Amino acid sequence: MVSQRRNLPLLATPETCSGRTYIVTGANSGIGLEAARHLASLGAGKVILGVRNLVAGEAAKRDIDESAGTAGTDVIQVWQVDLCSYDSVRAFVKRAADELDRIDAVIENAGLTLSVREMAEGHVKPLTVNVLSTFLMAVLLLPVMREKAKKVEGVVPRIVVVGSTYGFEATCKADWEGIKEDPIKGMDDEGMAPLKTYALTKLMEAFAIRHLARELVPVEKTGVIVNLICPGLCITNLVRSTPQDFKDMMHQMYAAVGRTAEDGSRTLLHGAVAGPESHGKLLHSCEDGEPDVPDWVKDDTTMQKRTWEAIANELETAEPGCVARMLDCA
Ligand SMILES: NC(=O)c1ccc[n+]([C@@H]2O[C@H](COP(=O)([O-])OP(=O)(O)OC[C@H]3O[C@@H](n4cnc5c(N)ncnc54)[C@H](OP(=O)(O)O)[C@@H]3O)[C@@H](O)[C@H]2O)c1
Q1: Which of 2, 83, 86, 112, when mutated, tests ligand 1's pocket best, judged by the most ligand atoms within 8 Å of its CB?
Q2: pLDDT at residue 110 in the model
Q3: Fewer Cβ atoms within 10 A, N terminus or C terminus of the chain?
Q4: In a domain? residue 221
Q5: Is residue 82 lining ligand 1, measured as CB closer than 6 Å?
Q6: Is 1 part of any domain?
Q7: What is the CATH number of the domain that holds 95?
Q8: Domain, as residue range, for 154
Q9: Nearest CA to ligand 1 atom 45
Q10: Residue 170's pLDDT is what?
Q11: How far is it, in rounded angstroms, from Cα 129 to Cα 162?
Q12: Which pLDDT value is given to residue 3?
């Protein structure tokens, strides 16, 4: 079992966050909830909790308001978004475009792992939620963020995708070998064990974001920093829908090396304040550099491009022209 650093530094400060506007998806629980709480405590002007379940979202708002001293204000807002539905993602982005004056960072944290094969938008759910809808949101929001940033002095928007180095494990690498020619088809195949798809989605994110970031340079021109973070192994309820023996194994690992959700959330804040040097990179443990990204991911630009193109094709089918609009200024 690999050890990991705990008690991470909080790199976001009142100076970097005060009065700013943030979106955090999957913010009703776990790491996303703690990231939103930090942002509120640091004086953010608005923190949008993007949640699929409004009741859970309102409970999270009450919890944050109580601890961050934002009760009675509209700093914390609960907005519905279900990443199982492209229409829901579109509606969420439209609302952000219509209602927010500025968007300083979007933390795309919502994610899931399942042990049964369930479908959404024609794909297995972890693929739809962790990858396809996550990138659809990024692609639709990016031009919106860019335009809003032009109107407010000093805004350098960030899109932070919450990934995981779990996708670099040897078993996932071996599974990827079997599907890498067409990862979407491979993951959707009925023969693919549902529990394997989570790690594969995280690997897919790591490949795709590197190519996407290369399409979006220089940051001074495209205006938006896109990075990926790994929160490390954190004690959350992410594995709630997995078999008992898997849960037991995870609980042993949590006890040995797990970070609290609050500690892990500091990595999300790192992504939200990191500079242009983080563009296309995977940030880990609030540190500079990418010691945790293996060369077979870092250096394989062909695979990065192929993975991005597979995702982009799907997004173009869902929303024709969306990728071209995003790339318009690059
Ligand atoms: N925990 C770890 O060790 C670890 C390690 C590496 C990466 N991560 C990543 O960290 C992120 C947060 O996970 P967590 O550990 O904090 O687990 P979590 O508490 O289960 O948080 C996941 C969040 O995603 C939301 N979500 C799931 N499906 C959704 C959908 N269709 N639409 C909108 N929201 C949806 C969940 O909402 P509901 O409450 O409604 O289900 C929940 O708020 C995930 O992306 C995960 O892959 C976690």
Answers
A1: 112
A2: 98
A3: N
A4: yes
A5: yes
A6: no
A7: 3.40.50.720
A8: 14-327
A9: 111
A10: 97
A11: 12
A12: 80
For residue 313, tell me if it sits in a domain. yes
pLDDT at res. 221:
86
pLDDT of 1: 58
Number of domains in the chain: 1
Give the residue ranges of the chain where pLDDT is below 70: 1, 330
Asked if residue 33 belongs to a domain, the reply is yes
Instruction: Say what the pLDDT of residue 312 is.
Output: 98
Centre of ligand 1 to C-alpha 247, Å, is: 15
Residue numbers annotated as active site: 198, 202
